[in-house]
């Protein structure tokens, strides 16, 4: 397996995640998050490289560890982009504004997910037809989108902890993303990238 392109891609993944972490710092106004931002970035980078090395040691874990790396990045992209929207629009943190911001952040995370899962997570495995895979990906994504955005909007309206709107908006998105991640994992693992995952689990087929 050629590690050089993958390591380059991993560096890009770490850079994108760092930007999104900064968005979370700006928007949530959590003091400890701001004070230890560099430490969080360091742990994020080290964690990614650690997972990557585990995956490269065994072909049976390559797809799983890479999928986990992209899953973490997708969450950061979703929450980070949403954070930037909320930070620069402090008077528009609820209602249809929030739904619009959450939809845009989810769509950007979705594009990120498809690109990196196609070219990084399962990039070295046997490919299905790109059109077939894209159509399956869109079906799973639409289901995840409906659950993620609507649930985040409902939670955001409640704010039963009386937190500041920026922090509560991000927390709402995070709670909703848990359900979205479950839907995505099941859909990707057993339908969209089924052949790719099978190739990793059965390297003799390659």
Could you please describe the fold and organization of this structure?
The chain has one domain (3-205). 84% of the residues lie in helices and 0% in strands. It contains 8 helices and no strands. The model has no long low-confidence stretch (mean pLDDT 79).
Main attributes of the structure:
single chain; 206 residues; mainly alpha; globular
Structural topology:
Layout: H1 3-28, H2 31-35, H3 37-57, H4 59-88, H5 95-121, H6 130-158, H7 165-192, H8 194-201
Number of helices: 8
Q: How many separate domains make up the residues? A: 1
- Helix coverage percent of residues? over 70%
The total beta strand count reads: 0
- Quote the average pLDDT: 79
Low-pLDDT sequence parts: none
Judged by helices, strands and strand pairing, the structural class is mainly alpha
The biggest beta sheet reads: none
User: What is the distance, rounded to the nearest whole angstrom, between the alpha carbons of the first and last residues?
Assistant: 12 Å
- Coarse morphology: globular
What is the subunit organization of this protein? single chain
Helix and strand sequence = HHHHHHHH
β-strand amount: under 5%
Calculate Rg over CA atoms: 18 Å
């Amino acid at each position: 397996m050629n590690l050089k392109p993958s390591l380059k891609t991993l560096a890009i993944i770490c850079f994108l995640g760092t930007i999104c972490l900064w968005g979370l710092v700006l928007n949530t106004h959590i003091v400890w998050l701001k004070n230890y931002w560099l430490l969080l970035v360091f742990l994020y980078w080290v964690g990614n490289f650690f997972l990557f090395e585990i995956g490269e040691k065994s072909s049976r874990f390559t797809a799983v560890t890479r999928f986990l790396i992209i899953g973490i990045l997708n969450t950061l992209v979703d929450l980070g982009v949403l954070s930037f929207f909320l930070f620069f629009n402090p008077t528009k943190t609820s209602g249809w504004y929030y739904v619009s911001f959450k939809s845009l952040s989810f769509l950007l995370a979705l594009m990120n997910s498809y690109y990196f899962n196609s070219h990084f997570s399962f990039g070295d495995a046997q490919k299905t037809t790109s059109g077939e895979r894209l159509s399956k990906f869109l079906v799973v994504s639409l289901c995840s989108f409906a659950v993620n955005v609507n649930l985040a909007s409902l939670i955001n309206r409640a704010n039963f902890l009386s937190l500041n709107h920026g922090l509560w908006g991000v927390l709402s998105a995070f709670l909703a993303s848990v359900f979205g991640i479950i839907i995505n994992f099941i859909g990707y693992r057993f339908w969209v990238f089924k052949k790719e995952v099978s190739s990793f689990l059965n390297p003799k087929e390659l």
